[in-house]
Amino acid sequence: ENKKELQKEFGLDVDETKPLVCFWGRLDQQKGINLIINTIKFLLDEFDIQFVIHGPSGDENYNHFFEQLEKDYPGRVGTHLMWDSFLRHKIASGADILLHPSSYEPGGIVAMEAMRYGCVPVARATGGLADSVQNYDSAKGTGTGFTFKSFSEESFLVAVVRALELYNNKNEWKKLVKRTMESNFSWENVA
């Protein structure tokens, strides 16, 4: 139900079977926004996905890019390029996959928030993200997301494609989402 509401809010085609990929946060190079910009058209062309992006930008080029992307992919791309502290919760509760390809990340709270809602992160293994997102391992049946090491378009794409392929295996995807939601970042575990 959350996914359907999110699709309606962003003007996407309402279809619970399509993977809904998202990003929220500052549209900034530190957050890996250039990796997303350089790969999102390929992903939209090659995979039947939807994409939602939310966050402020100090760079008008980013705004123009995503506004045009929404026009080029009607019903598949939704944008909200101003900050709304409530909207990120709505996105996390309705989206399937969070893109979090930061060049560096001291804390990784966005991934932790997404995981609590069952939104599986695709994150660069750096800083706090390396501590909080455990790479999915199909042989062991472990992990809470999909990580990549090199800050490159190729490494990022491989991780996203791994996530999209697993999404098609509904049984394994549900297990991953459950593990993701059960992640505990409380002070009890940290201490």
Notes on the protein architecture:
This protein is of the alpha/beta class. Helix content is 47%, strand content 14%. It contains nine helices and six strands, in the order αβαβαβαβαβαβααα. A six-stranded parallel β-sheet has the order 3-2-1-4-5-6, sandwiched between helices. Strand 1, helix 2 and strand 2 (50-54) form a beta-alpha-beta unit. Helix 1 packs across helix 4 (87-94) and helix 4 (87-94) packs across helix 5 (109-117).
Helices and strands in order, then pairings?
Elements: H1 2-9, E1 20-24, H2 33-46, E2 50-54, H3 60-72, E3 77-80, H4 87-94, E4 97-100, H5 109-117, E5 120-124, H6 127-132, E6 146-148, H7 153-167, H8 170-182, H9 187-190
Q: Summarize this, please?
A:
By secondary structure, this protein is an alpha/beta fold. The protein contains nine helices and six strands; from the N terminus they run αβαβαβαβαβαβααα. The chain has a six-stranded parallel beta sheet with strand order 3-2-1-4-5-6, with helices on both faces.
